[in-house]
User: Fold this.
Amino acid sequence: MPATEEPPARPLRLVIAAHAVSTYGSFLNMVALGLFTLEITGSAVSTGIFMAVRLCAGVLMGLVAGTLVSRYARARLMIGGDLLSAGALVLLVAMPSAAQPTMLHALAVLLGGSQTLWVVALRSGLPALVGPDDLARANANLVAARSVAMLLGFGSAGILVTLFGYHAAFLLDATSFALSALLLAAVRAWRVVGRPAGPPAKGSRRGAGLRRLLPSVAPVILAMIAVRSVDAFGSASHNVGLPVYANLAWPDAPAAFAALFTTPWAVGSLVAGRWYARRAAGTSRPGSPRAFGVATCAMSLLFVLAFAGPPIWLVAVLALAAGMADGYAEISYTTRLQTVEPSRLPQLMGLASTAQNAGFGIGMIVSAFALDRLTPLPVVALAHGLALAAAGAFLISHARTPAHRPHRTQEVEVAP
Assistant:
């Protein structure tokens, strides 16, 4: 980085702040828009369609996000996504009530697509922003910031809607996206990262990126993406099953039970992020595949135990531990993926985002149908059992590979 540019710490702080603010907006509208859709349509099916459209938009965006990030400055893409989201929310508030149901579907597409593009741009650009020595620490700080934002987003959504109404919640949501865009606009050092300095790699050409990407990426990284997608399938089961479980466990106060489940989970993720950040300070070691596999196994097992009907204090403890395992797994996973050759990274992050969104979407559909016939425990146990099996198979396969692994800079061989 030229001496005339900003020191790395300031751009990173701005990006972490933008990530936190944008994530807050995403979790706020996830709750508020779902409730709003149910209120104006009076249909649970319409609410489900809204969520499905949002997820599908994210899956489809993941297929092209890598190409977009390779061709255009990532900061501008992220700012554009934030501003479009903010503008669409303001438009939803301003338009007549009769037109709002139609606008909701357009908003679902915009929010789902822009959020995926935002994440791909962020994760693929982080190595160039901070360098290898601070990469794991930066990922840990991003997870910690996201955990705080999730707590605030989920916690404030119900209060804002109850006290001030949906329009106030949407306008605050729009403000959060606008603030994220302003923070990103100040990251001057990152504007040069969006387009490679030299000619584009052959793998980034239109229509050839994915075909050239898969043979060029180390098998362990592709296996980690596969495990993460199955883990997303399992995570969908406890997200869909939690409202049912809460109504069965505490029929007089299901919202309080759900809060006592989700809040410790977010706190656990925050703790993992802060601990990992301190542990990884000044090291260039990539995320450990073995640690990723162990953490994924632990998280799945802990979620199943939490749905087995233990006392509420033990539910909170299990959720806290599951959040810690999930946070650790995510940091290890993201840091490992970011060790690939830079010209391949946007495509790889797009593929990873598509796989994870697809796993979560399929898991939501399967779990919703299964919960019509089964109680939450067998549904969560089966879904997380698949994630546990996938992570276990990954650990066994990884343990059988030769001990003399190549250095991380050689893990990706560019296809001829």
The chain has 13 helices and no strands. The two ends are 30 Å apart (CA to CA).
